[in-house]
């Protein structure tokens, strides 16, 4: 399984299309996560854009979060600190949203692998 987060802007979406095409034939499952959008219209645009250009993409979303960027920058130690006494409380809800997302990915992966 390959998970690719993306933003909703045209440049990011086009990069996702190119990335998807590049890895599609070598990968069983690609999950695209539309990430960090404030208005549902932005998600709808990104979703439709990807659906029109990719063969049967699996698309999930996390509405408002910077957690992907922070984990990429600061690593697992940062992620583990979210919601703890000395951690960053403002990201606790985001971490919970991500936990839901990861459970969804796990479920999709199990269903696809069972086929």
Determine the fraction of residues in helical runs and give it as a percent range.
Answer: 55-70%
Taking all residues together, what is the mean pLDDT?
A: 79
Query: What Rg, in angstroms, do the CA atoms define?
Result: 15 Å
Strand order of the largest sheet: 1-2-3
Oligomerization? single chain
Largest sheet: 3 strands, parallel
What is the percentage of strand-forming residues? 5-15%
Report the span from N to C terminus: 14 Å
**Record field, number of beta strands:** 3
**Shape field:** globular
What ranges have pLDDT less than 50 throughout 5 or more consecutive residues? none
The helix tally amounts to 4
Find the structural class using helix and strand composition: alpha/beta
Q: SSE string, helix = H, strand = E?
A: EHEHEHH
Question: What's this model, at a glance?
Answer:
By secondary structure, the protein is an alpha/beta fold. It has helices at residues 10-24, 40-53, 67-81, 92-114, and strands spanning 2-6, 30-35, 58-62.
């Amino acid at each position: 399984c390959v998970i690719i987060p993306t933003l909703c802007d045209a440049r990011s979406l086009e990069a996702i299309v190119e990335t998807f095409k590049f890895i599609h034939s070598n990968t069983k499952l690609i999950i695209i996560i539309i990430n960090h959008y404030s208005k549902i219209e932005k998600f709808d645009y990104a979703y439709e854009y990807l659906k029109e250009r990719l063969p049967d993409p699996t698309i999930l979303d996390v509405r408002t979060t910077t957690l992907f960027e922070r984990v990429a920058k600061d690593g697992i130690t940062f992620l583990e600190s979210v919601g703890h006494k000395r951690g960053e409380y403002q990201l606790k809800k985001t971490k919970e949203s991500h936990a839901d997302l990861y459970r969804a990915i796990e479920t999709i992966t199990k269903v696809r692998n069972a086929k």
